[in-house]
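Re: Re: token formats

Sure, here are both.
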Amino acid sequence: MRVDASVLLKQETGATLPHIPPAPAPAPKPAAEPAVRAFETYQDTVARTIKSGNVSMVTMAAAEAQYRTTAAGQADEARIESQAAAGRFVKRVMLYGSGAVLLLAACGIVAVVALRQNSVTAQQQVDAPFIATDDTKAVSFDDTTTRGELLEALTNAAQNESLQIGLVGRIAPVVASTTPGAEPDLMSAADFLTLLQPRIPGALLRTIQPTFFFGVHSIGTNEPFLIFNVDNYEQGYSGMLAWEQTMKDDLYPLFNYHPNDRITGVSTATSSATTTPTDAFVDQIIVNHDARAQQTPLGEATLLWMFLDRNTILIATNPSTVNEVITRLKNAPVSAQVQ
């Protein structure tokens, strides 16, 4: 069935369209928070605090004053503590520095003492019969040497020996060897005493053993002493008693001791009445040993002899030398007792 176009047009014109509500408007996007927050000043903080917490300006001012007071106190405390720490550091530095100086000084003293002890120990290793010695010097002679030349050479060597007080030096008389290029030979005790003291008793000379020690002991002056061995005590003792008659002259000027020389350190040619020894030998006890001695009117020994044991005889000028010899004799190694 055909529909008239006019009818269709009228129908379309009169038709009522359905009501379509409008689309809601989109909600506004929140503002993006900046990646870096703006720097908040002290005034911003104060304003925000007042707005959010109902804090008055008076309260804020009081709080700020208290903060500044507290900060200042903390700063003062920090400054005082810093100064105290610095003071403690300086004290520690001074203390450690003083300790280091004292330690170095102590090390220096120990080093000096050790070096000195090592030096004396090394010097005392010099080979010598009977006792350890701090120095050894050889004095050469030959078959033509006279008694006067021997005395002069030994006296000069004894006086010129440079020793600290308390030390002992050995003066070793040697004779040139008859073998070309050979070392000099030590003079035997019998040859030495025969040349030095022609009037020595024959009985004593026959009992003397070859080994002997002639040396000097420094007590302010260099004082000579002589040690030798005998193989028969009775013969040696009687021979020494017989030798007393000429011993003083036989040993002069080598053994020429004056007690007051120790004060001046210079040998005197003249003697006072109180230091002039008598010619006679008398019995004395010296360092717990029986001795025979010439002495001054005041009882001071100036020339003495004694048996250190039944075979060893010591001739000396003073008790100090006797004490030193006995001490060294006790401490001498076995190999140094007799050579």
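Second one below.
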Amino acid sequence: MEILDDNFYLSKNDCYITDPERKRSFPSRFFLSSKLSFYPQILWYVLSNGAKAAFRQYTNEDWVKASYGILRTLENVGIIINVSGLKNISVFEGPVVFVGNHMSVLETFVLPCIIQPLKPVTFVVKRDLLHMPVFKHVMRSRDPIAVGRVNPREDFKTVMEEGVKKIQKGISIIIFPQSTRSVEFKPEEFNSLGVKLAVRANVPVVPFALKTDAWGIGKIIKDFGKIDIKKKVWFRFGEPLKIQGRGAEEHEKIIKFIQDCLTGWKKEEPNL
């Protein structure tokens, strides 16, 4: 796949950070609220890509380009994005299970342009996303693993069966083990589903941590929250973990990795 930005994926680089000298777009500077310039552009991406997907013309390259466009839109309104540990995505040649925390809708939109150019990937998603107006076409085109989040036993069976099939085809899986998006990370709500899939499929887990509350959770519509340009966006990918036994030790390592990242990032934004 064509790499969209040489600054994003140079083999000698292990990280990406928004150019601190990058100027905000004119609409972002013109409107008093970042939401007024940001959301119309996001809606355009959703509508244009949804229409293409509805006619079964939506490719992996289209997905990456749209994801990358959204990343740039975030930067255009003034948000600094910091991604590290990029080499850990592809240090293992085959498919893996990516396991991380879930904070906002931002990661759903941005992770594809980070991972897909290096590894074919799809998500474990809530079944509701496959029925959302317009966006459902994009989501269905990615052939995700859909779960209901009502019956844990049924969800477990679905993820194990479909996940193993996709991994055998060379497709990596992104799993958010939390039941819902949350700014606060609670280890007791972070299940071991991703680790169990890795055990079943005999592949490593790549842990990732993120801080994406710059795109807030809305009070009325969850996906349309406050856009806070004072907050930075952080992603970090850890070293692949080869699961031993039932994976209890590795699950704890993933939790500690996420906690340590969140603690460190909080220290770097003392005034927020």
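The radius of gyration is 18 Å. The longest strand covers residues 205-211.
- S.
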